[in-house]
Amino acid sequence: MRHVIALDVGGTGMKAALAGASGELLHQARRPTGRERGPDAVVDAILDFAAELRAYGEERFGEPAAAAGVAVPGIVDEEQGVAAYAANLGWRDVPLRRLMADRLGGLPVALGHDVRTGGLAEGRIGAGRGTDRFLFVPLGTGIAGAIGIDGRVEAGAHGFAGEIGHIVVRPGGAPCPCGQRGCLERFASAAAVSEAWAAACGDPEADAADCAKAVASGDPNAVRIWQDAVDALADGLVTALTLLDPRTLIIGGGLAEAGETLFTPLRDAVRRRVTFQRLPSIVPAALGDTAGCLGAGLLAWDLLDHTDRTEVTR
Hints:
alpha/beta
């Protein structure tokens, strides 16, 4: 059976799959990144994992994988195949596409940014399926975005397109590691809500999910913290939709797991802020933590499709 290798590398762990031609996950596995041993160990772990998957696929399906796709966090030069920087993995300028291709015996390899890759999957086969223009915004440790246009995701001229988390929504507000003050992700990420709720309830272990439960039970402090986050998020999203005019706005990540505790007030807050703009559909992401693997698989199949088309036109 024809298949590809798909790898989604996170800050602490890796999710991987063998993906079929229709995008289905034929085999799934997980490994730690080993980041406590340094960036070189992380790269070795990725390459070893990919090699294991290749061997498993060949044994199970009777043929080697046709290509590989890998999604990584941080700054990614997709055109050159370089993982330029990732603070949580400690690496700089890693030629990951070349290293993986060498390890896999010359297999074609596609490298993508984790959020854009997840957005690609959500747009094509998830919550945005059939939509020509979408914006995917996962609310996790930080906030990023993927701008979907006609079945692809826009990376921008320098690979920074979609960094909605660094729109300033509260000028002069909390400092952000990026160097600005008042960035959206300092107020509306799952990490920001967790931090605010832990301080308010006096439990350092409390997180955003606990805050959402307290909101549902009517706790006034939780309601205040949650509404502050929703208002900041709505401000950032309205800026984004004013610029991009998406048909569908897909919200994912940890905060979206609160369901209508998030989506009902968020839809109301965005609706109150729009004037001339067309209100997009605001929907939860559909693929959960498989989005990165599914997207990496799509990158690999796209690579093969492009190669096939190139060979036909020669």
